[in-house]
Specification:
three-stranded antiparallel sheet, 12 strands, 10% helix, globular
């Protein structure tokens, strides 16, 4: 199992500010000893496109931080304040974070099995990121360096589900309309 190291996760020796586990029937958090890396795996099996969990217990903040997720509300970001914080980036994500509906769904591309690594495609929520990082997912088609959607070639976004606020900005900035058309539709079938 490849672990994506991102700048979003804290030193595991400092516990998060929420009561853990926040999703005891859904998420198992793993801390890698003697590193600042952590990851989450699934405790449930669900079909592609199923609701994994609503996003609750979050706090809206008016600025980007390393661990925040961009909100559908302009200029706002979400501190997750739950074990969803430990869901890493993946170039072949197992989950989709829908920040308009405030829910996390199983990727429409595949079923989720017990023990699967929990990942989502960071540019699906992030127009700009505090800092780029190198992805180590080792999946076929790994994008390498991960940046916000505004900095990615539009062809790199093809085939990914992305949030409406990212899609709208892709359309407005006039960069690569053909690639925008090929980005997966917002709604699940």
């Amino acid at each position: 199992m490849a672990i994506t190291r991102s700048p979003l996760h804290p030193d595991p020796s400092h516990p998060p500010p929420w009561l853990q586990p926040s999703h005891p029937n859904l998420i198992k958090v793993h801390n890698i000893p003697q590193t600042s890396s952590s990851y989450a795996t699934s405790l449930v099996s669900l079909p592609a496109g199923a609701l994994f969990t609503p996003i609750t217990n979050y706090v809206l903040i008016p600025h980007r931080t390393w661990p925040s997720v961009q909100s559908a509300r302009p200029g706002m970001h979400i501190d997750l304040n739950s074990d969803l914080f430990f869901v890493n980036h993946g170039c072949v994500p197992s989950l989709e974070f829908d920040v308009e509906k405030m829910e996390v769904r199983v990727s429409r591309e595949r079923d989720l099995k017990v023990g699967d690594l929990l990942t989502f495609f960071y540019p699906s929520t992030e127009w700009e990121m505090v800092q780029a990082f190198d992805c180590f997912c080792n999946e076929e088609g790994c994008l390498g360096q991960i940046v916000g959607a505004s900095q990615m070639p539009r062809t790199s976004l093809q085939g990914y589900w992305v949030n409406r606020h990212v899609r709208e900005r892709l359309d407005w900035d006039g960069k690569g309309d053909a690639a925008y058309v090929d980005v997966k539709e917002l709604e699940h079938p």
